[in-house]
Structures are given as structure tokens and as C-alpha cells.
Sequence to fold (551 residues):
Amino acid sequence: MALSVRHNERSERLDAHGGTRAFEPFFRANYRAVVRLAQGVVGDSQRAQDVAQEVFLAAYRRFPGDYEQAGGWVRVAAVHTGLNVLRGERRRDRRQLRVNAVTPLPTPEDTVIEREARADVRRVLGRLPRRSAAVLVMRHGGMSYVEIAEALGVKVGHVGTLLRRAETALRKEMDRETHF
Amino acid sequence: MRHISEGVLRRLDDEPLAVPDRVADHVAHCERCRARRAEIAHDTERAAQLFSAPQLVPDVDVAWALLERELRSHGAGEPDRPRPPVRVRPRRAPLPRVSLRAGLAIGTVGAVIVGTAAAATFSNVFAPTHVAPVSVSRSDMRAIAALAGLSSSQQFGGFTTPNGSSTLRFGTLTWSSSGNVRPASSQAQAAAAAGFPVTLPAHLPPGVGAVQQFTVQPRVTASVTFDSTATGLASSSVTVDAGPAVIAEYGGTNGVNAPTLGIAAMPRPTARSAGATMDQIEAFLLRQPGLPPQLAEEIRLLGDPKTTLPVPVPPGASERSVQIAGRPGVLLTDSSNTASAVIWEDGAGMLRAVLGILDAHDVLNVAGQLG
Fold:
């Protein structure tokens, strides 16, 4: 009896997996958050969407039919994949998936100077220790301290310390960037 | 009340309800903490500004259509299992000068030894079920050696004799084992000598030939006994049991004799303390002069010291957290991605490592088959 139940559960999981039906709601619920985090790392919205596609492809294969635990995973993967892109650690996939996106017109605040500053941030993120870069992107991408602690495998009480250290390093590196 | 740490001050602005009331009370009455809080808030605001790009509004329908097409065209309905490698690629040259076995010693035995020296924060029973990276620079290594009084060979290469002792700055290190590292002629013989099954991958990456050699490291027991110079810890001890370990070393194809791939397995190491508590040992070690503050902080941030094994990340290597069959692992790659290693605890009590003159993809593929 128990065996039969397990067999049926497995069959259902495989059916769902093969048909992508179960994956679609998960994708729709998490896609924007993943793109936002990826954009926090790579800056460019098109590249952020490429990263998101890569992350969801990997999630589909990694969590066949059961996406309960996958929400946190895709967020962490978005940050790390973005950092890999920044640091050129990985050969870029030849696939270039371009997704039409609606980007609001630049606001008056989005000055040339600020755009340049954001380009500097990408260079600095590529130089910071990976964990510092990750914690910056996660926090400023909207993740809570508890979520960050789970993602990085540290105690929640240490997230503030990591974040503080990362923001200090960011300030110093940005000052260096603008002085050269 | 002591002043508030920067980490807590940082959280106070983000998640004030998660911070105890006494923190806010202290800050309200402490000029120094108020000034530090303002400085932190300034950095936070600047970071927030730098990360506030114009908000992207992606078209989810289009994105889903593209992904679905990709999934169908790649037959991605198959579960995530390692596939036989199909890429053909010439061997890379030159090979690193360090021998594969030495590399594995760094990855496994070294992890245990450095873990003992740097993070003798082991509590009454240490039995790691997770691995976590710790960045270790050359100066950190020198500092650890100086701190403990270890010679460089003991730091990374394990022990040079089956039994022995050594005087540390704050006590005595003794170790014993049933003999030297010895070769085994077959997978079965290695398994018999080690006392556990030896698992090997069914599919090998291109360029990797047959197993050249099996090596068995007998079980080692090492103890640090603190002496009277260790204030408050006199006569306390930490004992680590590690091994036995089996290392399978693969050669190359087309007559290449240099080792290309190594696979190591050992029961997860365990440690126990007698006398002092974890807090006392941790406090003692972390206040030792000469311990780099950054390293001490990394050790503190590892998570639960009872279940987390620190994996030293050598200078020049990059580390990444990975999942091997659902278990957390640490992937190390050199800067040119020509040599990689992954270490993880398999959930069944075994610590496993795969190291190769291979890129990260191939090493992970092999690891996934052992999961």
C-alpha cells in the first residue's frame, strides 16, 4: 500500500515535470524577484533576463516536479550567476535570450552622473569578496535578514555584521574608483 | 551595558522590531553609539542609492514563452542526473606542479588539520554535516602556524609519522594511527582496508583514463591538551578522530601518465572536548595575539560549529557554494578554471572530495555521480 502510494506520487511528479505545467506558476510567482536581484548584480536589464532564464532552466532540472524549496534557491542562484557573469568566471552561454521589457523612462533623478556611478558599482562588485557582494545585492534587492542568513548559511545575527562590513568596503572602493 | 555592535546597529535601521528594546534604549542615551549609528546610516543610504536602478518591469508572458520553448527543445523533462560527457577536448598544459595527492591532502586531511588548529571551537561533540568555505591567505597560514606552534608540514600535509607529539604554544599536540599511508591494488582491497565501500563514477570526463592507484590513509587520532599557559583551560583537551580515507587516483588517456582526477572519501571526522566548554575554548583561541581579525570573524560566521567543517580556500582560488545530490558543498577553482575541487558531506556520514585537472563542470559531473 505504502509502496503503491509512493509509486503514484512519483508518477505524478514525473508527469508534472515532463509537462512543465507545475513549473509555470512557480516561474510566474518568482520571475520578477529573480530578475530584480540579477539586475542588482549585472546592472543591465537584458543581461539580467538572460541570467534569470539560465537560473530557471537550472531550477527546472534541479527540482523535478516539486518547487516548494526552490523559491530561495532561485534567488541565491540569481545573485551567484550574476556575479559569475561580472567576474567572467564562467564561459558565457552562447544562448542570447532577449526578452522585451518595458523600462520606465529615466526619471529626472537618473542623471548621467548616477548612471556612471552605477557602472562603477559593477566594477566594484566584481572586486569585492563574493560574500560581501552577495549580501549587498540581496539586502538592497529586498531580501530580509532571515532570508539572507538562510541563503548564505550563516546565523541571522551575523547578517548585520556582514552587511555593515560590505557597505564599508563598498564605500572605500567607490571612493577609490572615483579618485582614479 | 556594553556598546552596541555595528551589526546590530545596522539591523536597527532595517528591522527595528527584530532588535531587543534595550538596544534602542541604549542608543537613545549613548552619544557614541548614536554617532556610530549615524555613520552607518550614511553608508547604508549611499549603498541604497547606488543599487537603486530604474525599476525593470519584465514581460513575464514573453519570458515564460521563451523558457518553455527552451525546455522543450532541450528535452529538459529529464531529471537532473549527470550525463555521459560528450565533449572532446585536448588536454590542457602545463599541468600544475603540485601533485594530485598533495592537492587532495589539502582538500581533506588539510581541512581537518586546519580546522583543528584554527577552529578548535569544537564543542563536546563535533560531527560536521555541512562544509563551509573559509578564505585563508598565506599570512593567515603563517599566523595560524605561529599561533599554535605548528610546523608548515603539519599544517597542510597531515602528519609525517604514524605516531608522535609536538609542543604547541599553549599545550601539546599528540597523534597516533595504525600505520603509514599505504597503496591498495584494487577497489576491493582499498574498501577492505578502509572498512567502507569505495564508490567510483560510471562516466569519466574526456581525457581521464583508468585508475592508476588506490591509497589508504589509516585512521588518525589527534589531541590537543592545553597547559597552564592557556588561562582557564589547563588540562582541558580536544581530540579529533579522522579517517580512514581512501584516495583513487586516475591517469590520463593517450599515454598521458600524469594524474588527472582524484576521488577521496572518509567518514566524517569527529571531535570531542574534555574539561573546558566550547565557549571557553573559543574565547581563548579568538583572543590569541596574532590571529588575523578577518579570519577570526570568518570562523565566527561559519554557523553552528558543531556541524560545520571549515574548508580552507587557498589564495588565488575562488570558491562557490554548490549542491551535490541535494547536499551543500564547496567548489574551489583556480583562476584559469583548469583545476577544480569539490568537497561535501554526503548525508550518510561520509566526507567526499573530487579534485581534478579539469574544469568545474567536469568535477561537478563526477561528484554528482557519487552523491
